[in-house]
Amino acid sequence: MAKQLIECVPNFSEGRNTKVIEAIVEPFRKKKGCSLFDHRADKDHNRLVVSLVGEPESIQDVVLEAAKTAISHIDMEHHKGSHPRIGAVDVIPFVPLQNIAMEACVELAHSFGHRYYQETGVPVYFYEEAALKSERKRLEVIRKGQYEALKKEVDNPERHPDVGEPRLHPSAGATVIGARKFLIAFNVNLATDDVNVAKEIAKAVRSSSGGLSHVKCIGLSLEERGLVQVSTNIVDYQENALYRVLELIRTEARRWGIPVKETEIYGMVPAGAILDSISFYMQTTDFDPNQVIELRLLRMLRDNEA
Amino acid sequence: MAKQLIECVPNFSEGRNTKVIEAIVEPFRKKKGCSLFDHRADKDHNRLVVSLVGEPESIQDVVLEAAKTAISHIDMEHHKGSHPRIGAVDVIPFVPLQNIAMEACVELAHSFGHRYYQETGVPVYFYEEAALKSERKRLEVIRKGQYEALKKEVDNPERHPDVGEPRLHPSAGATVIGARKFLIAFNVNLATDDVNVAKEIAKAVRSSSGGLSHVKCIGLSLEERGLVQVSTNIVDYQENALYRVLELIRTEARRWGIPVKETEIYGMVPAGAILDSISFYMQTTDFDPNQVIELRLLRMLRDNEA
Fold this sequence. Notes:
Two copies of one chain form a homodimer.
Chain A: E1 5-8, E2 11-12, H1 18-30, E3 34-42, E4 47-54, H2 56-73, E5 89-98, H3 102-120, E6 124-128, H4 139-142, H5 146-153, E7 175-179, E8 184-190, H6 195-205, E9 215-222, E10 227-234, H7 242-254, E11 260-266, H8 271-282, H9 293-305
Helix pairs in contact in A: 1-2, 2-3, 6-7
């Protein structure tokens, strides 16, 4: 039987200081039983997103180690960035990947959340499949008003953390921990510096304002580059194809005569999402993932492993 | 060190009789040391294309076994189909896949070719990297006029086989054996029954008449479906991107106001070709194959194997 594998995608509120970024990432390179699949720091977002794959025990140990480094270096009182956040370690989602059920990832998120608070003193909110209150399934509800607003409202029972005292850590804020399906982060950059265009398009595309189900979306400014970005999260790529998100954004952008300049798949993506989209653009019929030679080699090696 | 792997893509001149097709394919399912990655029979082409991956020794043994079955069942005197062919076993290419050089596949093609003639009595032509005469690098030169013409011209020294007497096998014709890079077979179906449209487009697209280098292309009729097909082989997908072939065909078809109805990736395709094309259609910048989770898992498993 092939071993249990999960993905973990911790998000840290540091995308500019390369020394701090390296210090956070270092344990991920060294830890046995897990592989650093991807990490990318964005200066505008001022955020570091890491993708780790490995066995549940190793992942939990190493994420806690990296989190302690992040907490000791990042001060939310002085953090600025275009991406919503409430803490130095902003989000820690666990994703079932191989031979493990979502329910097991939910339990893992809960037990990890308690350990995390004990060892760091940073209060924890549970989200998505691990949410204890239904409204907290949605990350944007927990992060409403971001660090600055939450600091003032945390003693309001509605905003109490799920683990820890009703106050934020003085420099590291709070952390959102959960279990969820594989998420695709997909950014579309538009050739304009008018952030309202990105915000209007985001409104048309995201589920919360009547757009595509399973898509979260915000419009933001990439000031350094003089562009704006429609930044999307596809929370269920099997229900909501990648190409459909891009094509809807292209369509909406036409209202202002603004072309898509470029797009960016941020972090990891499952092969299925790519194949689904290539079938659309290339009009392939009956195209089967088993026709991709590397996917068959993976199957061959897995069969040998079993 | 990971083991040697080659792909072999034997093409058989039977795409209609399911009993014969199953008899040919059966040994590929059973043989140890190789995996049947793909096989597809096309009624219009009247042709069976198989993709096998495995160790060189196992592949050679099993291909010979299947070839003997094909030779005993297929009579070229009564074969009709829209795809060019000169034999019951029409082409046997060997493709280096892992830990083996092209030169080794050329040697393998040559020694296999001699064994093949000895055991079957079917004369052999060597093509692509294994060609002994430079003009025979091109499959279409060897297959000129197909079975029917070759039968008459084979005693002309220019058309003598590379292995065997200068006459065709009375029912199985001849076989072309060689070594080549990974080839993508890509068909584009157009919503018209005018085969001249497909032929004209093919002329514009293929290298031999001034189109895209590394692309072979013919226009043919899919009579059963009332469509025509531009059937392409991309012989070097790294030099000639998949999307570019489709977009050029779409462009040329516009001359007649004829839309692309559907396309078909025929057999196996490397992940790199798909990712290259998705980057074009989705305008992704800096997209790295290492972002595809399955490709990273494959790398992880290979590292463990080594």
